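@channel sequence for tomorrow's demo:
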Amino acid sequence: MSVQKSWSELQTMHRACTLVVGALDLLEEAAVAGTTTKELDRLAFEFFKKHGAKPAFLGYRGYPATLCVSINDEVVHGIPSEKRRLRDGDIVGFDLGCSIDGFFGDSARTVAVGKISDKATRLMETTKAALHAGIEACYPGKRVGDIGHAVQTLAESRGYSVVREFVGHGIGTSLHEDPQVPNYGPGGKGKRLVPGMTLAIEPMVNAGGPEVKVLDDDWTAVTLDGSLSAHFELSVAITQHGPWILSEPYPYVQEALHA
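structure tokens (generated this afternoon):
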């Protein structure tokens, strides 16, 4: 079940989430043509080690790396490899998490390698906008279904499809907690949002159809039709004033002072 977090616990999650986004910033800078995906994985591992954090994905259900690296038609869970090099024109999804003092942070973003197509740029922009549409639904009294409805409405209004097989989730002392947070469906359904809930919201949006398949490595998911896919994710806390993106400073200081 979803566990409401105390202010001090949210502060710990803020530290974890800030580190994850810091690592993603580093990876985005390093995402140049010729770089191997394994080298990017090493960068993420060393960044967490340097800052006293534990990689969340390494060993999770047998996953063999710190980082998920998903390129072009790969939707999620791509395994880093010494043999896989980034190429100019690729779009690359980085999915990453860590834990500090028993609390987790989780985030993802899709980045460009060199010059990418207008089609790829529009897909990335739409997926990021869909994420923020979902976050804007994170107010007390709303329901989990309102998040997915906001994501789906924005993505489909621009001619894209939303992946069904993978969803967002609660997060806290476990990487994955209840409730599941689908990126589709009707609003007004599901668990009611209350202050202290923490959710990882992560739309995966395809340029073609929504269907995916998992490759023989049992991890890498790709679009069934070979179309491009993008993935953005942020961990968010529900507060009495609205959503707090946990990798950013608390945004409601004035409201808190005058509450």
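heads up for whoever presents: Residues 140 and 194 are 5 Å apart (CA to CA).
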